[in-house]
Amino acid sequence: MxxxxxxxxxxxxxxxNFYFSITSEENGMxxxxxxxxxxxxxxxxxxxxxxxxxxxxxxGSTVFEAYGTASxxxxxxxxxxxxxxxxxxxxxASLKFYNKADGRIKVVxxxxxxxxxxIRPLLRHSIALGGCSIRMCDEPFIYLxxxxxxxxxxxxxxVKRARGYDPxxxxxxxxxxxxxxxxxxxxxxxxxxxxxxxxxxxxxxDLKLALDVAKNNNWRESVEFAFAGGIKIDMxxxxxxxxxxxxxxxxxxxxxxxxxxxxxxxxxxE
Length: 270
Description:
The protein is α/β, with parallel strands linked by helices and 270 residues long. The chain has two domains: 99 residues, Quinolinate phosphoribosyl transferase, N-terminal domain (Aldehyde Oxidoreductase, domain 3, Alpha-Beta Complex); 116 residues, TIM Barrel (Alpha-Beta Barrel). Helix content is 42%, strand content 22%. It contains ten helices and twelve strands. Strands 6-11-10-9-8-7 form a six-stranded parallel beta sheet. Strands 3-5-1-12 form a four-stranded antiparallel beta sheet, covered by helices on one side. Helix 7 packs across helix 8. The protein is elongated, with a radius of gyration of 24 Å. The mean pLDDT is 95. This is Nicotinate-nucleotide pyrophosphorylase. Belongs to the NadC/ModD family. It holds the Pfam family QRPTase_C. One of its GO terms (biological process) is NAD+ biosynthetic process.
């Protein structure tokens, strides 16, 4: 048979429109509204309701209602759910970390840089919806990760070179204690002019060692300490108690599971 399967199946329904809704199967935060609206227009759907990005939802919450032809409804099921599942999952994870921190510490997720360029804007937006930051600080800064430090051979030379480019920008240095003890590396970074020291080992003892050298030598108030490396939500209280200023969360937010949604046909539109 030369006719397409769906064309054949839906031929008796060609003059009918069908009303449907998309509802959440879980508690969380909704994200992806702009993409849904854009695709709904492409599919020829008439939108009745679309939740706003950042809406906190519960299991059973309706996030989208529309009507269209049988073919458009089936296409919507195949496409629209995929546009909201992942961003809503990331927004939900961001919200959980933000609520757990409860204003006691800044939570950042910079791991969006590790995903496909095509979806980076959407995931950055989702992280921000949940309340976490996508940047280590709001003002202009230069970030020196482990490879810059490896290229220069030490943290001091890397920081000094970066400061020479623009002395007004903050220097953020990723510290891992690869060549010298982490407390020595932290002190070297501070003396060279770094203002945010990110202890990226996931080891709380490394954070303590870096903080202790700062406190004992009276430069603790001159810098901020960030902590990163496999951060889980149940670690937040311990990190705060240790005295960090910033937590940089990676996979626990960006690799959060999709929030589950379902699409249900409700009625024929007369």
